[in-house]
Amino acid sequence: MNNNSVISLPIVTPNTIQRRHPTWIKARIPGGRNYTELKNLMRDLQLHTVCEEAKCPNIGECWNSRTATFMILGDVCTRRCMFCAVKKGNPNGNIDTDEPRRIGEAVGYLKLNHVVITSVNRDDLSDGGAAVFAQCISEARKNRPTCTVEVLIPDLEGNWDALEVIIQAQPEILNHNTETVQRLYRRVRPYANYQQSLNLLQQGKEMDPKILTKSGLMVGLGETVIELLETMQDIRNTGCDILTIGQYLSPSSRHLPIQRYYTPEEFNELKEAGFDMGFRHVESGPLVRSSYHAKEQAQLSLLK
Fold it and tell me: Is residue 77 assigned to a domain?
């Protein structure tokens, strides 16, 4: 497939809404020794994970593989995105100053080779939490020097000085999710800006050309194929190296409804289209989330 190819996904309309998950949407039921051990560790160290807070369908698989995405800066988000299950509210500037140390302790205890650190949006902080991200990177490296670090960061409200604080801590992968196409931003991400997300990816690459940049998209929110391909190309034009594409699954009846389910074959076509655009790696599938198989993505991309 070349860059001008049009893949065979139908245009989405509200009439395509389905009420039951199709047969290919199957997640492992959480359980097992590793799952229980990891859950207990998070409780003992008073740490949050996006796996739990965002009700990720892959929590059973990932935790049994002893991988998790740590969520720092609390569990209350200052944004009100219509796709996300994380609690919303005002953290009032509160920061747990001991959290980076506990993150490092968990990374060392689990003997992680790759760690993903993300956060809620903290628009109540002048730097959006950038300094805490940098401290967490440092603590992870202190406790596990061989561990590669991926940070999945908010848009920092376009504060590039704050972004530079994170870049200077030298994570191997800088991840920021674009989430959806530009037309749907006001409905899906009412307090975010499409161009600002693209600018963040580009700024990160310009600040450190060696850093791997990464972004993710959800599908099934009402986008058209043309919009989706254009968004993928916009992301690639920032110099982004890694792209993840997954099916949107509504966390509750209070969140945006699913407009359409993409088939596994359609996800494969999107993956092929992404590789044709020049991404180093594309992870595309019904249950793919930004941190799904993150360790494998990092290993493959760092080798190229």
Answer: yes
